[in-house]
Amino acid sequence: MRILITGASGLLGLNLALETTHRHTVFGTVNTHALQTDAFTVIQTNLLAPGAVERLLEQTQPDWVIHCAALANLDACEADPLLAEQLNTELPRKLASHVARGGARLVYISTDAVFDGKRGDYTEEDAPHPVGVYSLTKLNGELAVAEADPSAIIARVNLYGWSLSGKRSLGEFFYNNLSAGKRVMGFTDVIFCPLLVNDLAHILVKMLEKKLSGLYHVVSAESLSKYDFGVRLAHRFSLDTGLITPTSVNQSGLKAARSPNLSLRSDKLAQVLGETLPTLSPGLDRFYTLYQQGYPQMIRSLESK
Ligand SMILES: NC(=O)c1ccc[n+]([C@@H]2O[C@H](COP(=O)([O-])OP(=O)(O)OC[C@H]3O[C@@H](n4cnc5c(N)ncnc54)[C@H](OP(=O)(O)O)[C@@H]3O)[C@@H](O)[C@H]2O)c1
To answer: Does any ligand 1 atom lie closer than 6 A to the CB of residue 68?
Structure first.
């Protein structure tokens, strides 16, 4: 397949490109970051520029488009709601309508944060209730994509992994600080279902191969607190769990509101795939194996300055 991945310098996009390039022809877009790699074709484009989406689709002629580009930093979204709306809602709307017309299949990457987290254990049937600019613009992106391209897959995800900057994911946050002997907070009252990005990449491909469409929760089958995630990661890397201070998110001083319980059920996807989604331990095992293989350094070396 010819796969177009937007946001290929991001945590998800870059790992997705690297995981899929062996079996497919991959094109990955970057905006402010420059990538130096022979693994896939890198295309530099600001997707908000007039005509950029049209040119990109014309140039790449994709069978599948996996739209990972976004303004995914919560505080940046609060600081610039207009940019958040353009990137997280209007760009997906435009992309979906062009992709639908061209006959390719689209995956729109959304987020567990469309829920307010007051209850947890959410299914695809539950009504979302976003609590901040990021969540609201991502939910509006879901609605825009579903309207423009009803055959699109809308994947609500939560992920961790190794990234270009070396500090994009919560997994890296715990690894970087604990391995440097630094104390960190671990939220005991924020619950999530993090999936290793490399596993997420393969699941997204399976969903496309199965020609799924509509809304799916694509998260780990296991939910836990961010504190417990840090402790489990520390154990896996033989780091000092005592450096993680159990803390309530309310005492953290974070600017943008966080949803406390974002445990999502992934039964709908498990049923169509005929397998449950990975739990945390196999993901952490692979995260550790990648680390031993020098994957974090390999990823970071792709950035050309
Ligand atoms: N990370 C998480 O924990 C998480 C959790 C739930 C959902 N998600 C969702 O997963 C998706 C991927 O997230 P991520 O963490 O991989 O994001 P990320 O690391 O912040 O990367 C964002 C990507 O978007 C690109 N981008 C931003 N503005 C652009 C523009 N104007 N034109 C073209 N590209 C642009 C960036 O390119 P440059 O860097 O080159 O500028 C980068 O490649 C997003 O939809 C996000 O909402 C992420």
So the answer is: yes
